[in-house]
Amino acid sequence: MKAKSTVRMIGCVALLAGLVGGPVSPVNAESTVSLKKQKQVQIDKTCRKSFRLRSGELQLTMDATLATWEGAKRSAEAAIADMKDALANPEQSVSIDALKQGALLQGRSMAASIEEEGARNVQEVKSFKKRFTKCFSTPKDKQAFDDAVAAVRAGFREMKDAKWRIHAVWLELSAANVSKAEEEIQKTLVDVIAAEPTFDMGMNRLGKMD
Question: Is residue 141 part of a domain?
Answer without folding.
Answer: yes
